[in-house]
Amino acid sequence: MEVLGGTTIFLLVCISCLLFATWRSRSRKGKEPPGPTALPLIGNLLQINPWNLPESIKELSEKYGPVFTLHLGPQKVVVLYGYDVVKEALVDQGDDFSGRGTLPLIKKLFQGTGIVTSNGETWRQLRRFALTTLRDFGMGKKGIEERIQEEAHFLLERLKNTHERPLNPSSFIIHAVSNIICSIVFGDRFDYQDKKFLDIIDWIEENNRLQASIQTQFYNFFPTLMDYLPGPHQTLIKNFEKVDKFTTDIVMEHQKTLDPSCPRDFIDSFLNKMEQEKGNDDSKFTIETLSRTTLDLFLAGTGTTSITLRFAILILHKYPEIVEKMQKEIDSVIGRDRSPRMSDRSQMPFTDAVIHEVQRYIDFLPINVPHSVIRDTKFRDYFIPKDTIIFPMLSSVLHDSKEFPNPEKFDPGHFLNADGTFKKSDHFLPFSTGKRVCAGEGLARMEIFIFLTSILQNFTLKPTVDHKDIDISPIITSLANMPRDYEISFVPR
């Protein structure tokens, strides 16, 4: 018993010394950001609203300042609230904050191997290759503009064939937008009647709805527990796996039909890069990273833009006076006989302001895609340990009342000068900023402008309910803000 007691005392002394050494090391490096006291296991769950995390974070920032610590269950994160700290971290100290932090649900779905969620040298090489290759296949160039115009024509024909019947335009928009990234990554578009692709669209739409479920929200707090519980989150994961299989099958088919001398698309170019890297044991270009990067590009290229356009139509059919003013500008600059093109935008300040205001108002990713610090980091007066997850709150930038008076109100005037010219704002960061800025920003801007102006050039938006009863407020989820379901009639002009 004496030996056992002595061993116990020795272990306690060792643990105490270790804890003291860790505390002393941390205290020498500086104090960590303040924050509410966290409880074991559940963290700050009792002090926040899991169904509206951005609002809870806003309230906490008023008490703890622009840089503070928050515990989501056992997971510690540091929140950056306000334009100044977001810019200072992501731009001025961009390298320190260039890591990708992953919440449990993102980690479960994406596994950290593609361009969106990878880190370190893998991320640097994949991003460099992706940006170069996507440019080679027309992204940001005139070639892809013509491709968007062509797809917009297909969408317009589909809308005409509804014969003014009220409908939810969600699947129409997702299909059209998705075909753009498909043509770049897969080498071809999908027919609107393609059964396999219609299934993919259905799974994506269902997952957009499932994000708002209680179970999905709680997955980021208690992932191990939620893995064993039934619920909508399990359906979301299964749907994601189906989409993953769809893109992986396309990669496998490309392997069989590859002509190295004539790459058809992004996948072929990646396969050629894999061949060049053969024999390099440290190569980041593997079939696994190709499959994951293909999935990342497909989902990112489909989701953000299609959701923005769905929001835009929802908002605009509530405000016919805004639509009428946009249509006058469209008729004046573009007319009715040709497709809109990006060069028109500079002559259309009101339309440009409306599109910017849609993106600002909807605040699609209020928490941003989480970052992390890649090393022990000194930020302002605080010490942030390596690998700490960072929430650079885009909502605090896009809804800053000093920059945008009445930020909760939809008002294109936020982006207009008194003389009606377009007003730029440094606070317009819907695609984030810094080293992790969205790689597809240029493509998304082009798609949103051409698709939306094409629709308004050809149709008037007719609501199925009174304008005052149209709810344009976003549905808040743990990952993104989503538009409410609605029906609308597209009336030919």
TrEMBL record:
Protein name: unspecific monooxygenase
Pfam short name (any one): p450
Tagged with keyword Metal-binding: yes
Protein family membership: Belongs to the cytochrome P450 family.
Known role: Cytochromes P450 are a group of heme-thiolate monooxygenases. In liver microsomes, this enzyme is involved in an NADPH-dependent electron transport pathway. It oxidizes a variety of structurally unrelated compounds, including steroids, fatty acids, and xenobiotics.
Top EC group: oxidoreductase
One Gene Ontology MF term: oxidoreductase activity, acting on paired donors, with incorporation or reduction of molecular oxygen, reduced flavin or flavoprotein as one donor, and incorporation of one atom of oxygen
Organism: Catharus ustulatus (Russet-backed thrush)
